[in-house]
Amino acid sequence: MLIDTHAHLSYPQLAQDQEAVIRRAVEAGVTRIVDVGTNATTSRSAVASAECHPEVFASAGFHPHDAESADERGLEDVRSCLNGPRVIAVGETGLDFFRDNAPHDLQESLFRQHIALAVEHNLPLIIHSRGAEDRVLDILQEKGAGAVGGVLHCFGGDAEQASRAVEIGFYLGFGGTLTFKKSTSLEVARSVPADRLLFETDCPYLAPVPFRGKRNEPAYVKNIAEFLAEASACSFDDLARQTTENAARLFNFEG
């Protein structure tokens, strides 16, 4: 039993054969998939996917790359999505100072608005952070976001930043980068308390070894879990059970 806590089923790379992608995930033991919205359009698509598939749940929000398109109408669309019974989180939101696709002040303003939405709807946050981990943590702490919690997905920070995230009430999500030879993600993942660890694919991107460079999909979350279990000399079954419990606790799928 595994949960892919971060997928983009509505992206064109996966939407063309979404039914087969979900079927392969179920066959691999993935019981839940979180289809993550990144703007008004993909948020609505994620909600539609969740309504059609019992294995799929949705989130709604604006990725920092899409900050400049997050106008009043778009934010109202996201707010409307959050009222859906199968919408279990706010996001993907956060900050990206690596690619700088939007001004930092605009990203931060939008991030704060998403935190407010999460508190208003009593939903956890799904957070993107790249090249901005300390600033993300500062804002989460400043806004008291630990009251709703959430996950820093595809976490790329160091062990000290991971520890700080846990202290303020957040989980850490790890995906295919764990398996990359030059990545530091494995070392950081090993430092995270077992009850704060989540698995994800971020598909269609970041496929794990041995699929690196190919299209990623939710079924491959099993490869990620197997890799960490072997690298940490722990039981795959125990790790799968623990991370599934963690995801269920955070997202309250059946609530």
How would you describe the overall organization of this protein?
This protein has about 260 residues and is of the alpha/beta class. The chain has one domain: TIM Barrel. Helix content is about 40%, strand content about 20%. It contains ten helices and eight strands. The chain has helices at about 10-15, 20-25, 40-50, 70-80, 105-120, 135-140, 160-165, 185-190, 220-230, 235-250; strands at about 1-5, 30-35, 55-60, 85-95, 125-130, 150, 170-175, 195-200. It has an eight-stranded parallel beta sheet with strand order 1-2-3-4-5-6-7-8. Strand 7 (about 170-175), helix 8 and strand 8 (about 195-200) form a beta-alpha-beta unit. The mean pLDDT is about 95.
What descriptive keywords fit this protein?
eight-stranded parallel β-sheet; alpha/beta; 42% helix; TIM Barrel; 255 residues
Short description:
By secondary structure, the chain is α/β, with parallel strands linked by helices.
What helical percentage do the residues reach? 40-55%
Order of helices and strands: EHHEHEHEHEHEHEHEHH
What is the CATH architecture term? Alpha-Beta Barrel
What name does CATH use for the topology?
A: TIM Barrel
CATH superfamily: Metal-dependent hydrolases
Q: Give the strand order, joined by hyphens, for the main sheet.
A: 1-2-3-4-5-6-7-8
State the helix count. 10
What class do helices, strands and sheet pairing give? alpha/beta
β-strand number: 8
Shape: globular
Q: Oligomeric form of this entry?
A: single chain
Radius of gyration: 16 Å
Average pLDDT score: 97
CATH class: Alpha Beta
| Number of structural units classed as domains | 1
Strand content: 15-25%
User: What is the straight-line distance between the termini?
Assistant: 19 Å
- The parts where pLDDT drops under 50 for at least 5 residues are none
* Main beta sheet: 8 strands, parallel
